Amino acid sequence: MLFSASAWPGLADGSITVTFRTWSRPQAKQGGRYRVAGMLLEATDVREVAVGTLTDADALAAGEADLTSLLRRLKNPPPTSTVWRVGLRYVGVDDRIERRVDDSLTDDDIAALRTRLDRLDRGAGTPWTRTTLRLIEKYPGVVSTALARHTGQERPAFKINVRKLKEMGLTESLDVGYRLSPRGEALLRAID
């Protein structure tokens, strides 16, 4: 889920506890966890509600000044239409941040990471994980289009693959490109 930067403080301090979305189908699920601006949020409730039942209290819980502001953000849907109501709870800091700074890998950690990389390689049909890690190590901060060309992948596929490595705490995104995290650097040292 995307939120404007102006909502981040309210999400972090718990004053924003709900969001309303005009999705055609749910894009969140109850109990699902979502990363937003270095935070981990949990969807506590996901359901459709009639626009005509929304109140100023709903707007305040969504971080808006009043119902008029909320409806304006939703592009003024008719009162008879429905929107998705997603209850939110701040869980803590994005778990990838904590994971990626942990470079004290045990033998078991290294074995588990190797197993996961091997599984990703097998699933793709061709090995890509270690090549991508080494490429990011060699070219930190280089735009993903250029890195994708080095691997022979299309940019969207390359970015999806890097997200898988990021999920493991091995890489981190920069304003432009990526770099290895301390965890990723430790893993490469261990497997080279």
Provide keyphrases for this structure.
single chain, 192 residues, alpha+beta, Sulfate adenylyltransferase, Arc Repressor Mutant, subunit A, 2 domains, two-stranded antiparallel sheet, 6 strands, 44% helix
**Low-confidence parts lasting 5 or more residues at pLDDT below 50?**
none
Oligomer: single chain
CATH class group of the largest domain: Mainly Alpha
Largest sheet report? 4 strands, antiparallel
The separation of the N and C termini measures 37 Å
Individual helix count = 9
User: Order of strands across the biggest sheet?
Assistant: 1-4-3-2
> CATH homologous superfamily name of the largest domain?
Winged helix-like DNA-binding domain superfamily/Winged helix DNA-binding domain
Backbone structural class: alpha+beta
As a whole number of angstroms, the C-alpha radius of gyration is 20 Å
Q: How many β-strand runs?
A: 6
Order of helices and strands: HEEEHHEHHHHHEEH
- Tertiary shape: elongated
What's the CATH architecture name of the largest domain? Answer: Orthogonal Bundle
Structurally, how many domains make up the residues?
2
Beta fraction of the residues? 15-25%
Q: Give the averaged pLDDT, no decimals.
A: 94
The helicity comes to 40-55%
The CATH topology of the largest domain, please? Answer: Arc Repressor Mutant, subunit A
